[in-house]
Amino acid sequence: MTSLAERTRLSQALNDIDMQIHSTLSMQEILQAALVGFIAALHADVGDIKIKEDGTWVVRYEEGFGVDVVGTRLAPEQAPVAEWVANTGEPVTVEDYHTSSRIEYVGFPQMHGLRATMAVPLIIRSEVVGVLFAWMRTAPRSFSTGELDFARRVAASVALALENHRLFLAEQQARTHAEEAEARLGQELKRTSILLKASEELASTTDSGELLRRLADIVLEATGIDRVFINLIDISNRVLTPKIATGGLVAPEGASVPFEKLSQTALEAIDGRRPAILDYERPDVPESDARISAANRARLVLFVPLLYSEEIIGHISLDQPGERYDFTPEQVRTVASIAAQAAVALHNASLYEREGSIPNSDIDLIGGLLLQ
User: Are residues 229 and 161 in the same domain?
Assistant: First the structure.
């Protein structure tokens, strides 16, 4: 029978534990506070908490053993008390391992020479996920009905604190998902606005020079990058013609560059015909490429091809001069979408310019033939 003084002491101990574990939403703080309060209330020597992980019991918290025990892993047959608590969901006591007929003296208590224990279930959503142990090192220990009742109350209080922790995490996760969805929506709206503007700007001119200048402005505004250069490519003749250069680069007027004079890095990007990050500081970069990039202060370059009917007709390249700018997936996706619109606009502009180059006499002849 438990005395009034003992009941009062255990009730105060439970209140102290409650204050500790319900004043935090950190699982680590909840479990450590429960462990410390539990072993103090029972006048135990040491304590630990084992968590069930992948079918084994793992020491995750300790008080009095030293941190070296944390991480100790026990198979179910080496942790019979923990298994019993997990199966019943009730506190379990062993008054003396040396004389006990129901619990084998194996595993953790045998490793550390422990004599007696009281173990309490740690429950989340009706499932025992761990066990809290208070241990006596050298002497047997009889536990009173009041102490068993105290253990059950501690188990219920810790279960409530752990459920609050779970709900807090779920709420945090839901809030994070909502914020991420809102951010994605904002990005999509911004991207849509950029692409609509690009469509209007690129479709409203048939002058290829003006079209390329507009393309450069659109890309710079969309990405916030300082430098862009746009080149046209004649893949059948294997020549590249620089058209637009900003940020200190100068495009030689009308100069075409044979592919054999291009850097190996650039040729690989052209052959790849897909967006790529060109790293001019990688260990295997050819020496000639390194010299070209150093002259232009190019370190990390975003290459985006201009493709029409699956044929490369040019490319857009962007970088921050002298910096290894880390392009985001969203920037790459946006520039690729703009490039797709620009390729169609460039094709249409070239058709219009070719049509405008037909001599008037030929137009009159074509018209006369149509009237016959």
Answer: no
Whichever domain contains 240, its CATH number is 3.30.450.40
Is 331 in the same domain as 257? Answer: yes
Question: The dihedral of CA 66, 68, 71, 74: what is its sign?
Answer: negative
107: enclosing H helix or E strand: helix 107-112
Do 351 and 220 lie in one domain? The reply is: yes
pLDDT digit string, tens, across residues 173-214:
999 999 999 988 998 888 899 899 999 999 999 999 999 999
* Helix, strand, coil content of the chain in percent (nearest 5): 50, 20, 30
Range of the domain at 342: 205-356
User: CB under 8 Å to 299, separation ≥6 — which residues?
Assistant: 279, 280, 281, 293, 319, 322, 323, 324
Domain count for the chain: 2
Six token digits for residue 289: 């490429």
Q: CB neighbours of 271 closer than 8 A, spacing ≥ 6?
A: none
Task: Provide φ and ψ at 358, rounded to 5°.
Answer: -70, 125
Residue 353, both tokens: 């310019």
Classified as helix, coil or strand, 29 is: helix
Q: E strands, the chain, where?
A: 46-53, 56-63, 73-74, 92-94, 116-124, 127-136, 227-234, 239-245, 257-258, 276-279, 300-308, 311-319
248 token code pair: 């200190």
Residue 224 sits in the same domain as residue 162: no
Residue 180 inside a domain? The answer is no
Q: Which amino acid appears at position 41 of this protein? A: A
134, 39 contact by CB (below 8 A) = yes
Both structure tokens of 155: 């188990």
Query: For 278-321, how does the pLDDT look when each residue is reduced to its tens digit (9 = 90+)?
Result: 999 999 888 888 888 888 889 999 999 999 999 999 999 999 99
What secondary structure letter does DSSP report for 23? S
288 & 228 share domain: yes
* Shared-domain flag, residues 167 and 296: no
Task: Tell whether 295 is covered by a domain.
Answer: yes
Judgement on whether residues 261 and 348 belong to the same structural domain of the protein:
yes
Q: Which helix (H) or strand (E) holds 367?
A: helix 360-371
